[in-house]
Amino acid sequence: MSHDSGADRAFETLAIHAGNTADPLTGAVVPPIYQVSTYKQDGVGGLRGGYEYSRSANPTRTALEENLAALEGGRRGLAFASGLAAEDCLLRTLLSPGDHVVIPNDAYGGTFRLFAKVVSRWGVEWSVADTSDPASVRAALTPRTKVVWVETPSNPLLGITDIAAVAEIARTAGARLVVDNTFASPYLQQPLALGADVVVHSTTKYMGGHSDVVGGALVTGDEGIGEELAFHQNAMGAVAGPFDAWLVLRGIKTLAVRMDRHTENATRIADMLTAHPKVSQVLYPGLPEHAGHEVAAKQMKSFGGMVSFRVAGGEEAAVEVCNRTGLFTLGESLGGVESLIEHPGRMTHASVAGSALEVPSDLVRLSVGIESGDDLLADLKQALG
Fold first, then answer.
1. What b/e string do you get for 113-141 counting C-beta neighbours within 10 Å, with b at 16 or more?
2. For residues 284 and 349, what is the distance between their CA atoms, to the nearest angstrom?
3. Cβ neighbour number for residue 263 with a 10 Å cutoff
4. Which of 108, 187, 206, 284 is catalytic?
5. Annotation says 75 is catalytic
6. Using CA atoms, how far apart are residues 126 and 91, in angstroms rounded to an integer?
7. N or C: which end of the chain has fewer CB within 10 A?
């Protein structure tokens, strides 16, 4: 998908208008849901608008893909059935048997599982680095390294990686830098502008924003990579369906205003938890004492809606906090308008137990929603006791 022609417009404007052209037939201001599998051709090989079969292209998905490219400042956006489907397509596009990948020591458990249990079976090797330390990334490189994978902020420890610094290291080594931008969203952070080759999203999270859709996305500024990704997207077929694409496109329209509120609430919660006697550590890049605070302040618009903290009483106490909230819903995933709480060690990150990515057992992760900040603070205080 080509970059939106109004690329000089502000993010908030692009979020609403990029890819969202009025329907030429009826004037509908929202792109229709083209719930269709195939298209009438104008003679053999005569495709109307390039559409022949909805795995290859669908107008609703096209609208979303153009929007995604514009928001990340890329040249090509691709929408998938899930974040992991997007990652799978990316890895099979960029890697061959015998290649090596550097992965972060803090990452989404599903990403780790994809590397450790799936991709490694096809002869791709990986090693772990603390991507918040550029020297650690450099030390993990081998002559066969083709991809450096980064999450920033990371899941669930909220680590921060200096994207520009790691991009330079990867480029020097002849490797591609992939940045999972799910936690920040393109409103808060634009990795392509900082040197990344490809951006990954679970659009299930902040992009969709309403806990009602599962989706994934890839965006690149490199036309060559974009063409290769598009070929593999069609060849492997894990595409976003039209209704899912429409839901993500709808969610994106309010991304900017939601992220502002997520951040506002998360900042208040992080401050409260920092002062709470039953909390031993708060992990939030907006806190001045956070190790990645200065880098985050440099490369992010603000610090986002994810907060993790460690409970002084240990694992059982952490689990009890999760069980005692009334307004925070106990559940996996993140990025919706409602606040969620979870125990990563037993829930989202169970797949990394025993690995270099294992998370502390006393850790609680919050996805801070856009409810009243006062109500959220009161709920956490009573849960902590």
1. bbbbeebeeeebebebbbbbbbebbbebb
2. 19
3. 21
4. 108
5. no
6. 12
7. C
Are the CB atoms for 214 and 81 separated by under 8 Å?
yes
Length of the chain: 385
Pairing of strands 125-129, 176-180: unpaired
pLDDT value at residue 187:
98
Please report, as a single letter, which amino acid is at residue 259: M
Q: Which of 162, 180, 197, 362 is catalytic?
A: 180
Q: How far apart are CA 223 and CA 231, in angstroms?
A: 12
* Residue 205 falls in the annotated catalytic set: yes
Looking at residue 185, what is its pLDDT?
Answer: 98
Contact at 8 Å (CB) between 82 and 208?
Answer: no
CA dist 151 and 157 (Å) reads 11
Q: Which two tokens stand for residue 151?
A: 């999450």
For the chain, 385 residues long, the average pLDDT of each consecutive 10-residue run is: 61 96 91 95 86 95 98 98 98 98 95 95 96 98 98 97 98 98 98 98 98 98 98 98 98 98 98 98 98 98 98 97 98 97 92 88 98 98 97
The residue type found at 172 is T
pLDDT at residue 7, rounded to an integer: 63
- Confirm whether 346 is a catalytic residue: no
Run of H or E including 201? strand 198-202
C-alpha 34/C-alpha 45 separation (Å) is 21
Helix axes 373-384, 315-324, angle to 10 degrees: 140
* Four-point Cα dihedral 267, 268, 269, 271, nearest 10: 90
> Catalytic one among 55, 92, 171, 261?
55
Runs of H (alpha helix) within the chain: 11-17, 59-72, 83-94, 109-113, 134-140, 163-172, 185-188, 223-236, 242-252, 255-274, 293-299, 315-324, 373-384
pLDDT, residue 1, reads: 40
User: 99 catalytic, yes or no?
Assistant: no
Question: Percentage helix, strand, coil, to 5, in the chain?
Answer: 40, 15, 45
